[in-house]
Design a protein that fits this description.
This protein is mainly alpha-helical. It has a domain at 451-524. The protein is built from 22 helices and 8 strands. The chain has helices spanning 2-19, 24-44, 55-73, 91-105, 127-137, 142-174, 184-187, 202-207, 213-232, 240-248, 255-271, 276-297, 319-327, 330-344, 347-365, 376-395, 400-421, 433-442, 461-464, 474-479, 485-495, 501-508, and strands at residues 77-79, 82-85, 308-309, 366-367, 428-432, 452-453, 512-515, 521-524. The strands form 3 sheets. A 3-stranded antiparallel beta sheet has the order 1-2-5. Strands 6-7-8 form a 3-stranded mixed beta sheet. β7 and β8 form a beta hairpin. α6 packs across α9 (213-232), α6 (142-174) packs parallel to α16 and α11 (255-271) crosses α16 (376-395). The longest helix has 33 residues, at 142-174. The protein is globular, with a radius of gyration of 24 Å.
């Protein structure tokens, strides 16, 4: 399924670029190509017998399944006249994804212009949203597609984590955290005590909200496991051609995952000298397609990277307490693991632990995006990749009387956050269904892909219906590294009907102006008086 998704999305990008945009026939064609790629990958892969499930494996699979069902069956759901979502972390993110899904399905030219800012190309890894656009054109509603894709991605992630590092690796995603959650022993109240920290629960704030990870995590872990088996063990049975396709096209889904995988290949190159020629040929072959993919998803390298020196990451004035509260014993354990592998580890553990430690240190010193919290997208990979070695080299050799309390210290806070974050008392309004219906009626004569001037609100009905806007929600624009301030000033002048508003609207590329309300008002720029 991973290969089918990746091949299908790349096929859609190629076909849409050649034919001018997506349509029903093209969507079915891309899905067909993806299915053919998946069947080919299945037939070419030599299956290796999996280990038997232990009791802890069964427990963690059960927890992962229950958490995934709760998170994704309610990722978006109707409640009376409202569309609601379960997680407050997902309010801004899901509205952007819904806009992208409907925007691509509307038949816009590829490579598409940005739907959130006039005059710039799209600079975003569009892979999973494009996948949902194909499903939409194939007859699956946006809401149902979000649920199905979420459940499938979560299931594949659980499987890939187990194949990579067993139950401990699954726990590393479900329960990561520091010591904040221990406050429940004092307060007796279930709540996500990590919600306002930098190192939040990654299941809630990454897997559920960052939709590219629904593909990137299982795909990346599959590649890492294949490289571990091919270069340090007895072979994975996973064809090199499929590895090449998945690696070279990863930027379409997650640039951060591609960066980490590339660093992992560099570490393997260093610690496995007998395979250097093979690795060099693999990377050399991937350079052109991977660079092209990065070029596309960064808008021709036009988006601001936000790269800057910032020692302490998000520490600010927190001092040592920041690290103790956010990470608890995980950082001391990582330091212990690094020392242990440096002294007595084999080449495999040194390769993967060294890349994890390097990424940890880089993320604590350098910010890789405009929003410093986005470093978590790299820290997550470092943490998950180190997890099986942390278990095998540090925790498993200990006596149970020592191992058990260390595991509790490591995962208790994250477990509290997970259960509190999936609590049934949650539910946050995204949009009113009646307002969306009124907006759809008002826009029925406006072709898809027409750029509209609206208030820059993340849940504006025009945005949720998939129309491109001249200047969208500031949180999206800023975090994507886009220079939007001048456009925002002009947009405000247009919406206030200030002198010269029509010229400003035309400069922004707006064909219509939409005023939100129970009875929405729609003006055409060229015909307005």
């Amino acid at each position: 399924m991973i290969t089918a998704t990746g091949v299908g999305v790349v096929a859609a990008i190629v076909l849409a670029s050649v034919l001018g945009g997506l349509n029903h026939s093209l969507a079915w064609g891309a899905l067909g190509v993806g299915c053919a790629g998946g069947v080919w990958a299945f037939c070419q892969t030599r299956s290796k017998q999996c280990s038997r499930l232990s009791q802890w494996d069964i427990v963690l699979f059960t927890v992962f399944a229950l958490a995934s069902l709760r998170a994704f069956l309610w990722v978006i759901y109707p409640a009376g006249d409202e569309w609601r979502i379960l997680s407050p972390h997902n309010l801004g993110d899901i509205s952007l994804h819904i806009q992208f899904i409907r925007y691509f399905a509307g038949g816009v030219e590829f490579w598409p212009a940005s739907p959130i800012l006039s005059g710039v190309p799209l600079s975003y890894p569009l892979g999973v949203d494009l996948w949902n656009s194909l499903l939409l054109l194939a007859g699956v509603s946006v809401e149902r597609g979000l649920i199905w894709t979420g459940l499938a991605g979560a299931g594949l992630t659980a499987w890939a984590l187990w194949r990579w590092g067993g139950a401990f690796a699954m726990a590393a995603l479900l329960f990561n955290g520091g010591v904040a959650g221990f406050a429940i022993l004092q307060t007796g109240q279930w709540q996500d005590y990590q919600a306002d920290l930098a190192w939040k629960n990654c299941f809630l704030t990454m897997l559920v909200t960052q939709r590219g990870l629904l593909y990137a995590l299982p795909c990346g872990l599959l590649l890492l496991r294949a490289w571990r088996e091919d270069f340090f063990r007895n072979g994975s049975g996973f064809p090199r051609g499929i590895q090449f396709v998945l690696y070279a096209t990863m930027p379409f889904f997650s640039v951060h995952a591609f960066l980490f995988l590339s660093l992992a290949l560099a570490a393997i190159f260093f610690f496995a000298p007998q395979h250097r020629v093979r690795l060099a040929l693999f990377v050399a072959a991937a350079v052109i397609p991977a660079t092209a993919a990065v070029w596309f998803v960064t808008g021709g390298f036009s988006a601001g990277s936000g790269l800057r020196w910032q020692p302490g990451w998000m520490q600010a004035d927190g001092g040592w307490k920041f690290w103790a509260v956010n990470f608890g014993i995980s950082l001391p354990l990582m330091a212990w693991l690094s020392w242990r592998c440096a002294r007595r580890g084999d080449s495999e553990s040194r390769a993967f632990v060294s890349v994890s430690l390097t990424v940890f240190l880089l993320c604590f010193l350098i910010v890789f995006a405009p929003w410093e919290w986005d470093n978590t997208k790299l820290l997550l990979w470092a943490w998950l990749v180190a997890a099986p070695y942390l278990w095998a080299h540090i925790l498993e050799p200990l006596k149970p009387i020592l191992r058990a309390p260390l595991c509790v210290l490591l995962y208790f806070s994250g477990a509290v956050s997970l259960m509190a974050g999936l609590d049934g008392r949650h539910g946050y309004a995204l949009a009113r269904r009646s307002e969306l219906a009124a907006a759809s009626k008002a826009l029925r004569e406006v072709p898809a892909g027409t750029r509209i001037a609206v208030l820059p609100q993340y849940n504006h009905p025009v945005i949720l219906l998939g129309y491109p806007v001249v200047c969208g929600y500031e949180g999206h624009l800023w975090s994507h590294g886009l220079s939007y301030q001048e456009s925002l000033v002009k947009l405000r002048a247009v919406l206030r009907n200030e002198t010269g508003w029509r010229k400003a609207a035309q400069e922004l590329g707006a064909e219509w102006i939409y005023y939100r309300g129970q009875a929405p008002v729609l003006y055409r720029v060229k015909e307005s008086n």
